[in-house]
Specification:
136 residues; 5 helices; mainly alpha
Length: 136
């Protein structure tokens, strides 16, 4: 016997969905911007990697990972997987900054925006989270 984990669709206002889409684009654009800088191997990125203690050989792979996570997140069918991947990526960034004793507020806020945007634009997630009256 298989369990059906599909939740019934919830009626949501178009304003809420569009707000979610706009919020979702913000962290995705930040990751795409950061990935582009890595893929271009800009001097500031190389210096940043030295400061963070990461070898320069990881600049391109991390840039490709970053842009892949953002693209997966922006595709509606794979958005939840993308949110999980972006959360993991941002968690690694937070850990790096914590290790160096540096602020990590931006990375934390991007992670919050990833899930807030997804929650607002995907009604299937609402029953899984303890928020109430979000669809009104």
């Amino acid at each position: 016997m298989f369990l059906d984990y599909q939740t019934p669709p919830v009626s949501v206002s178009k304003k809420l969905v569009w707000t979610g889409r706009i919020i979702s684009v913000l962290p995705a654009l930040m990751l795409i911007f950061s990935a582009t800088m890595k893929l271009l191997k800009l001097p500031a990125v190389v210096t940043g990697f030295d400061h963070l203690g990461y070898p320069q050989r990881l600049v391109l792979p991390l840039g490709m990972l970053e842009i892949s996570c953002a693209i997966i997140y922006l595709i509606p069918r794979t958005a939840v997987l993308g949110a999980i991947l972006m959360t993991g990526y941002l968690g690694g960034a937070i850990a790096t900054h914590v290790r160096l004793g540096e602020p990590f507020v931006l990375q934390f806020l991007l992670g919050v925006l990833v899930w807030l945007g997804l929650l607002l634009r995907d009604s299937r997630l609402r029953p899984l989270l303890p928020l109430r009256n979000l669809s009104n």
